[in-house]
Amino acid sequence: MNLRWHHFALWALFIVGMFALPQFVSNGTLRTMIFANFLAIFAISWDTLSGRTGYISFGHPFLIGIGAYTTAILTHRFDFPVEISIPIAVIATMVGGLIVLLPALRIKGSYFALVTLAMMELVYQLVQVVRPDLTGGTRGMSGLPTLTRGAANGYYMSVSLMLAIALSMWLIMKTRLGTALSAIGMNEEAVSGSGLSVTKLKMTAFLMSAFIAGLGGAVYIHYLGSIAPRALFDINFVFTIIVAALIGGAGTTIGPIAGAFFLTFLLEYLRPWLPGAERYMVYSGLALLIYMYQPKGMWALMTQATFKSKIRP
Amino acid sequence: MSAKLEIRNLVKKFGGLTATNDVSFTIEPGQSVGLIGPNGAGKTTIFSQIMGEHPQTKGEILIDGKEISHLATPQRIHAGVSRTYQVPRPFSEMSVAENIRVGLMPDSIWDMITRGPNREREVEIASAIGLGEDQLERLPSELSMGDLRKLEMARTLATSPRLMLLDEVFAGLTVNEIAVISDLVQSMRDDGMTFLIVSHDLKALEPLVDHAIAINHGEVIAQGQYQDVMGSDIVRASYLGTA
Ligand SMILES: Nc1ncnc2c1ncn2[C@@H]1O[C@H](COP(=O)(O)OP(=O)(O)OP(=O)(O)O)[C@@H](O)[C@H]1O
Ligand SMILES: [Mg+2]
Q1: φ and ψ at residue A104, rounded to 5 degrees
Q2: Domain around A105
Q3: Which of A36-50, A129-143, A168-182 is least confident?
Q4: Domain edges within chain B
Q5: Is B48's C-beta closer than 6 angstroms to any atom of ligand 1?
Q6: Which residues in chain B are closer than 8 Å to A194, comparing Cβ atoms?
Q7: Which pTM value belongs to this model?
């Protein structure tokens, strides 16, 4: 494993900084940062599967949705406590996602992207018509149990979850599993030509991704206290997740976090000028620009810049 | 250590094109056989059928007497066969060491996570193939064609094969690099490795093989002792393009 002490020092610094933040910023900013934390979780989830192996998922809301709806229904309709409903939601996301997407995962290439996109649409429709007495139909559900009160607590909860996930994924991706997953993205044929089962690896990446998506989705709606299908199964939501991972730098752990914070604040600051969906055009354009200039994202751009300033005294 | 390879009546159709047509041959354990033929003869296609990358339309492939056609590529590799690719396509954003690491990976995901890489073995394989320790952290884009071919050999070697299929390993190499790879093949032959080697460079091939199989238009046109095959009229004619 390629671990150096300065990696841990940077992580420690990052964690301390994130936890100190509520001392310095307003509650409004804090609320924005809570959303950034959740977006970061979803972007890490996306990156675990798509950023590493190159199998692009357009259906992450589908996974997030399984987690969110499972815990919402269990707590709201059956009075489950969240300590039980959230773990069940995570397992449901992994199992449910696998059953539906395994056939697509076995097939090489862009087919996977299409199937995931279709899946998201399908679930959106299903949630509205099948058993609306359970799902709340088009309107969703509100009055769900919330985990925290107040902006500061919400922030601590979301940032702890985000950092725990980020650190775990960073460690896992530093192992040989991480190497093998990235190898799929570079040359799938040579991976199986090296004796490795690509399907097994993709499944592992998928399960890790689904675990994070399910957990993030479940905790998210218990932060909000409500669930609304239109916001969840929204194509803009998928793009926000993907763009966060891509502009931050797919295939890294810090990239999706940086991208999520950047995007959340960008969208927030654009709100007064562009209240509608036009905002998404702005960041799509921006994402495209960064992508053209540095396909590895902002993170690579930043390390490039510090590297340059180092050699130029 | 050595594996036996039997190919029986192998047919491969790509749409209307028949890339191999009823190809049969046997390689005994420890034998080293040259597979020769003009461009487009079907040599690489034979390799990809043996590995299961392009499953055959018809025919059988046996390793040590066991039919492997129903196996996926990774399982065939576990059965002891491994190949190099004619056009090396290494994992482009990984160092030389990491490229070799992929070939050395364990089967179990759990082992991948909990056990670190076998650094010693990586260095050992790299140096066996003539890649210096100073090159281990380089990216493939920083390597010469010769070193890329060595890396391709190293990744193949890392899977611990008993039968190696080498596809044009000498193409684009300098005389010195050819010598390094030849020596390596020779020493592996001494250890009992079975080889099937495709090469247009007959001068480099000759000392490495005892037998040869010549194919043209997907069909075996001669097989036997290397000298006999090379001396046959039909093989010469196919190389001159008159057949
Ligand atoms: N994936 C494929 N799809 C369609 N046709 C193919 C494919 N692979 C090979 N062929 C065709 O099969 C025939 C045999 O190709 P093959 O690559 O096996 O030849 P070769 O003997 O390795 O040639 P070379 O010496 O140029 O490497 C050629 O006509 C080639 O165009
Ligand atoms: Mg070929």
Answers
A1: -70, -35
A2: 5-233
A3: A129-143
A4: 5-90+161-240
A5: no
A6: 77, 102-103, 105, 155, 158-159
A7: 0.88
